[in-house]
Predict the 3D structure of the following.
Amino acid sequence: MGPLKDLKVIELAHIMAGPTCGMMLADMGADVIKVEKVPDGDDARRMIPPQIAAESAAFMMMNRNKRGIAINLKTTAGRDVLRRLIKDADVLIENYRKGTMEKLGLGYDTLRELNPGLIYCEISGFGRTGPYAEHGGFDLIAQGMSGLMSITGEGPGRAPVKCGAPMTDITAGILGAMGVLGAYIHRLRTGDGQCVDTSLFEAGIVHTYWQSAIAFATGAAPAAMGSAHPLNAPYQAFETRDGWITVGAANQNNWLKLLAALNADTLEDDPRFSSNDARMANLEALQQALAKIFRTRSSDDWLDRLQHAGVPAGPILDVIQMHHDPQTVAREMVQTVDHRRAGSVHTLGHPVRYSHTPAELQRGAPVYGEHTRAILDEHGYSRGQVQQLIDDGVVVSGD
């Protein structure tokens, strides 16, 4: 199943960005073999609590649909095992610090001699070139340096705020998957593999398209605006009598529809709010006028009125409410997979629909070294050779 059926991917990645890339490819049908370090495996296994049946919930989320093998790459025999896996692989994903793979004799220049068609995807904190190439990077650091934290939060003078989700980790993984697919198309045409290089830093930068456009045009750095939009108004969250809702009246047609739903004829005649540029110039006054109106009714009442008026609006859901929302259910964005130890566990679905080659969630995340024996068997190792590798501490089997 999936558009990438029969694509073989070796994932030498941990925590989130690299595993996100591998997960996207696995959901699309690729056979993703996750190589974990010896001892202990992916550090996400220790991101606890919470746990389900003594397994990290965080690890299980990021590594569904993959097979797992544990290899001690500090040993010559372990590196030989990995080279055998890579020899006929289509893709390798890694997110180590710069130079780590080269020290192991597993850098791109070396591996492309072994496998000229290999697509070698590197995901790092700042990319493999530039003055920060050797710096380690985490989502928090990338959000700060990419400008994201300067435009997130309640407003100027308030403490900087990180996006609640690890935005740059997840986006870097998706960018990595996009890069792999672009390189795969090139290989289908030419037979040549290549190196794909992206980073958390760049993943943060691409989320500043609107703010960068403003900065390029004005020479001034945009500041945080709470839930408001830097280019359109009204486009933000408003407090109601019993909660909060979001309202997206971001063009003139929707603005007029909003006024009708609010029975606010006086605002239509107010020159401060006659056009989008006028509303942006008088944003604080607009927010105050609308806030007073929205606090007069309940969230459900307003959402019903806005829906009938054709104004984009919605509730602010917590994560559990989102999981149970009928649209989430209809789009199959919450699914279950079978895990060897934890049984049936919930996970998030694949976010893209394919009319002819649907993505499929086939298995839960591997327990540590779960598929070591099977993967080595597929790559020509005899039963005795596999057992010797286990006895020597070169690989770990979780069977």
